[in-house]
Design brief:
With 167 residues, the chain is mainly beta. Helix content is 8%, strand content 32%. It is built from one helix and twelve strands, in the order βαβββββββββββ. It has one helix at residues 11-23; strands at 3-9, 26-27, 47-48, 51-52, 65-69, 73-76, 78-79, 87-89, 115-119, 131-139, 143-151, 159-162. The strands form four sheets. It has a four-stranded antiparallel beta sheet. It has a four-stranded antiparallel beta sheet with strand order 8-6-5-9, with helices on one face. The chain has a two-stranded antiparallel ribbon with strand order 2-7. The protein is globular and about 50 Å long. 29% of the residues are buried.
Length: 167
């Protein structure tokens, strides 16, 4: 059985987050960045005690992106000293104590990503979108797949992009 959860965001809200991420000169890394040599000074992974030393990541080299945290909210990975973390909640909800829990666990899968990075370039075409839809699909045989859809107002087939598996 394949389980899914879909969340939606208003394109204008997502565009504000993208502007925040793209305006920042430094960006928060995701878990996999610690293994990417080009994000370290000198182009080589710096280790400490045989493990990547994330304190040595060059945050200016991390690409602008949005983080889908659990399936609850999108946040900018931009680091801006003058501003708090910028985020928006799913399906038009406002922050509350009840949204600390992820609906993803209702799927019975602990393999769903807790944070999925969606690069700013994946949102190309958002200007004409009616909705931004993110779907978490869990196939017990293949694992998690996260897709991004930019739904246009003409009800044409949306452009669907898989964002958690890169070639």
């Amino acid at each position: 059985m394949i389980n899914t959860i879909t969340v939606e965001f208003e394109p204008a809200d997502v565009q504000q987050l993208l502007q925040h991420a793209e305006a920042a000169t430094e960006h928060l890394p995701c878990m996999g960045d610690q293994f990417v040599a080009k994000y370290y000074e000198g182009g080589k992974v710096i280790t400490k005690n045989d493990w990547p030393d994330v304190s040595r990541l060059d945050l200016a080299k991390i690409p602008p992106a949005l983080f889908m945290v659990n399936d609850s909210f999108l946040m900018s990975n931009g680091i801006a000293a003058e501003q708090a973390v910028a985020c928006i909640y799913k399906n038009g909800h406002i922050p509350s104590d009840q949204q600390n829990e992820s609906d993803a666990f209702a799927l019975g899968s602990e393999e769903l990503p807790t944070v999925t990075r969606i690069l700013a370039r994946d949102f190309a075409g958002i200007e004409t979108a009616h909705k931004v839809r993110i779907t978490f699909l869990h196939d017990p045989r293949k694992g998690p797949v996260v897709t991004l859809e930019l739904v246009n107002p003409a009800n044409e087939a949306p452009d669907i992009r898989i964002v958690n598996r890169r070639p």
